[in-house]
Design brief:
By secondary structure, this protein is an alpha/beta fold. It is about 30% helix and about 25% strand. It has one domain: Maf protein. It has six helices and seven strands. Strands 2-1-3-4-5-6-7 form a seven-stranded mixed sheet. Helix 1 crosses helix 6 and helix 5 packs across helix 6. The N and C termini lie close together (about 5 Å).
């Protein structure tokens, strides 16, 4: 059975495929780049995940389509960047170095926002909601969170997004320093996917 994911993010696709443990096939939604994306204007991760799953499932009749909304919540920033995590730097017109990627700019802007915050006050969490829909109707959702701290400089090269800054005290490593299998045991996305699969497997296998 194949589940189609409404993302072109290779990091997310890799994480979902690893979490599936060969029980199902994970593929990007065909033709996704030609589909006009919906306006993600919900104030919560769940709202945006459900909105996207419903919308994209209507472009793949009869298929189960997954969509996630996830991000970083930093206590010292009153939960920011939250649902705007992927657009954090752009929302604040932060340009950064000319050659910087969007992930690098988001990380640099986050560090600038926390420059006056002591290390012991940098508690944060990753939050993910994953929704599955078929023909415009939600089937199930899964939720996952993981607690950590924001470092003052990036460490590691294996992750994406804020992973190089997101430190796991119990592992003494950032998310970007973990291999894929270990990361899934701790990641918000892996936990959300595992919860969702508990509901989905009986109807897809």
């Amino acid at each position: 059975m194949t589940l189609y994911v409404a993302t072109t993010n290779l990091g997310k696709l890799r994480d979902f495929a690893a979490a599936a443990h060969n029980r199902i096939i994970i593929e990007p939604l065909p033709g996704l780049q030609q589909i006009v994306p919906p306006l993600e204007d919900e104030p919560t991760f769940e709202g945006n995940a459900r909105l996207k799953a419903i919308y994209y499932s209507q472009h793949a009749p009869g298929q189960i389509v997954l969509a996630d909304d996830s991000g970083l919540e930093v206590d010292a920033l009153q939960g920011a960047p939250g649902v705007r995590s992927a657009r954090y730097a752009d929302d604040h017109a932060y340009i950064g170095p000319p050659t910087a990627s969007i992930d690098e700019r988001n990380n640099l802007f986050l560090l600038s926002e926390l420059k006056a915050t002591l290390n012991n006050n940098r508690d944060a969490r990753y939050h993910c909601v994953l929704a599955a829909a078929r023909d415009g109707k939600i089937l199930y959702t899964g939720t996952g969170t993981v607690e950590g701290k924001i470092l003052s400089a990036p460490q590691g090269t294996h992750g994406f997004g804020y992973d190089p800054l997101f430190y796991l005290p119990d592992q003494n490593k950032t998310m970007a320093e973990l291999d894929v299998e270990t990361k899934l045991a701790f990641s918000h996305r892996g936990r959300a996917f595992a919860e969702l699969l508990e509901h989905l497997l009986p109807i897809v296998t």
